[in-house]
Design goal:
heterodimer, A: 261 residues, alpha+beta, Jelly Rolls, five-stranded antiparallel β-sheet, four-stranded antiparallel β-sheet, 7 helices, 10 strands, B: 94 residues, mainly beta
């Protein structure tokens, strides 16, 4: 399989379960990012789901082996590309977009849906980057209840290089900063779905990776899957919340391993 | 009396790790009583003015609403981040 060398590791998977995102810097053909950005700059109306017809080069991004490797790891070999996609063009001078989760509040505790955010040009802090809050993906929180937050501990602005493809859990809290620059900020959002449950791990799994003892000294500095899953706490939440999210992570990990109850 | 000379309510929403005023702040929103004021997510590094709710109280903010703890508690579900304190300062805004 062409994508096999791009499958995620156990550590990558554990980090995704803890933080809810994975960033891939794509090795795209020379000039592709620029070509896509140029076509987007020239669009005068948003074609909605038909953005891939207006800019067919986007398929070279979505079907890139690095993207496929990460998606197979997270959603299984037979994952689906949802027909919904959207070009988010943030114009110079436009304000921020407040925190939200997409869709309705019926959150799962599995990895069944992912967002893919592609940036064809380099994004600076002034250009209105997408901002995500690692560790919020398992929270069943009405978007209305987020209206009194502006900045949240551990938030990550996706100030990224051209050709970056950020994969996030569908339920990860996200928003955007204001665009204070003089240029349009482009991001194309894709959706991906799981179509079947895992019977075996779909990533580059090493059974030995799970033979680690809990390291109470390393905690948040842990570099192995077992301890990342146990101690990761990117938001710095309370003990009660941390214990709950740890239980959810381990249940999710077991599902991904194919160990359904 | 000129409305500009009247004290106006500055609001501060702080989301603390626990209901204790001494626990670390996880969320921060300042709302100034100025026409057209908008809150904003930072696109860069955000500098946290206070580490705890207590730090804000020491700086003169008054708590006008404590976190609601009467709502049902789930031992399995996760919802919003932190416990919300609302604070105010009444000040003349130049």
């Amino acid at each position: 399989m062409n994508d096999s060398k791009h499958l995620l590791t156990d550590v990558d998977m554990a980090r995704f379960l803890v933080s809810g995102y994975h960033v891939v810097e794509l090795e795209l053909p020379a000039g592709l990012n620029e070509k896509i950005a140029g076509k987007l700059d020239a669009l005068t109306a948003n074609p909605g789901d038909a953005i891939t017809e207006a800019v067919p080069e986007l398929w070279k991004v979505v079907e890139h082996p690095q993207v496929r490797g990460a998606l197979i790891s997270l959603l299984g070999e037979d994952y689906g590309v949802n027909s919904h996609r959207h070009w988010h063009c943030k114009l110079p001078g436009s304000g921020d977009m407040q925190w939200h989760q997409d869709g309705t509040n019926n959150r799962g505790t599995t990895i069944d849906r992912l967002l893919g955010l592609y940036y064809p040009h380099t994004i600076t802090a002034e250009m209105g980057p997408t901002v995500i809050v690692p560790g919020t993906q398992f929270r069943n929180a009405p978007t209305d209840r987020m209206a009194t937050y502006s900045n949240i501990r551990g938030q990550v602005p996706l100030t990224v290089q051209a050709g970056t493809f950020a994969i996030t859990h569908y339920d990860l809290w996200h928003g955007t900063a204001s665009n204070r620059s003089g240029v349009k900020r482009h991001m194309i959002k894709f959706l991906f779905n799981r179509t079947s449950e895992n019977r075996t791990p779909s990533w580059n799994h090493d059974p030995a990776a799970l033979n680690r003892e809990r390291d109470w000294d390393a905690r948040d500095r842990a570099q192995d899957a077992v301890n990342i899953l146990s101690f990761g706490n990117p938001l710095g939440v309370s003990q009660s919340d941390h214990y709950k999210e740890r239980i959810i992570r381990h249940a999710c990990w077991e599902e991904l391993m194919g160990n359904q109850e | 009396m000129d409305a500009q000379c009247q004290p106006r309510q500055r609001l501060l929403y702080l989301h603390a790790r626990t209901p204790s005023v001494f626990s670390e702040i996880l969320g921060y929103t300042l709302i100034e009583p100025v026409k057209g004021f908008e809150i904003e997510i930072s696109g860069g590094e955000f500098e946290w003015p206070y580490g705890t709710v207590h730090d804000a109280v020491v700086d003169g903010w008054q708590i006008v609403q404590f976190p609601h703890l009467q709502s049902p508690f789930s031992d399995t579900e996760l919802d919003v981040v932190g416990y919300e304190f609302i604070l105010q300062k009444m000040e003349v805004i130049p």
